[in-house]
Amino acid sequence: MSKRKIISSLFLSATVLGGLLFIQTPTVKAIELEDAQTMSTSSAQAPIFSPGELIQETNHTAQFRNSVSIAATNGTSEKEVIWKVDSTYWNFNYDKGGYYFVVPAGMKLKRITLVNGQTREELLDRFPKNVNDNNGSNSSYRLFKRGENTYDDRDFDSQWGWSAGRASNDKVNQWKDENVFSDIYYIDSPRHAGPVTYELEAEVTDQNKTSFPLVAVMKNFYARTSYLSEPTSLAGLDVKVEWPQNNNLNS
Asked: Does residue 156 sit within a domain?
């Protein structure tokens, strides 16, 4: 069996919160989970992916709490995780902000694709391979790795504090304390005239793990909350994996 892959995407919507995008979410989610069960039972050798309860957090208003979401979907031969974001309240056409994608240990990110209409643009090669190589604060694409010796603002824990730490959540903090995360991929100052999609494809590399928490963070650097903090929203989803007996990822 080939290595299992998890695909995720970030959808930037210009619709208002409470509109069609979010009204449809519960229905779509139910269909997706049903499809996932169908795929899992169709192949006795396929691992079973089960998404946990969605976590949404913010340091701002309820509108921002719901502006980042992660929902599990099912593909033909892989598991998909959809990250849906409403950008209306963020106004990144004028303000500066950024997206943080936190990858768990035991997974390797294989692809980040920007989908804009009919065009697809691969972005992963724009990120540095080393946290101390071409990874300064002026870079548009940055990488932070847990446990690596770094300098300046390249430290994983510092970046976590400036992103997920600003929208603190007990469960997500527990994941961090348990060292379940390995990498943070950061896109600085996104500018989009209309809806776009970011697709992230990750490959499971450690079959000894049965839990893969995914975290996405959206942050505005110019605006301020009532506590004079930078508005930040977070979504987290723990994807559980049940491996078949005698499963071998390397075969």
From this structure: yes
Instruction: Give the pair of three-digit tokens for residue 82.
Output: 């959809």
Sign of the CA dihedral running 147, 148, 151, 156: negative
| Residues 40-89 pLDDT 10s | 444 556 677 788 898 999 999 888 888 887 766 554 445 555 666 666 66
Q: 97 has which bridge partners?
A: 220
- Alpha carbons within 13 angstroms on the beta-carbon side of residue 93 total 10
Does a structural domain hold residue 12?
yes
* pLDDT tens figures, 110-120: 888 777 778 88
Q: Residue 214: CB partners within 8 Å, gap ≥ 6?
A: 8, 70, 81, 102, 103, 104, 236, 237, 238, 239
Do 111 and 200 form a contact (C-beta atoms < 8 A)?
yes
| Torsion 189-166-65-225 (CA) sign | negative
Contact 46, 245 (CB under 8 A): no
Q: Please check the confidence at residue 207 and state whether its pLDDT lies above 60.
A: yes
Q: What is the pLDDT of residues 89-109, one digit of tens each?
A: 666 777 788 889 999 999 888
Residue 152: CB partners within 8 Å, gap ≥ 6? 136, 137
Q: Is residue 248 part of a domain?
A: no
Residue 115 lies in a domain: yes
How many domains does the chain divide into? 1
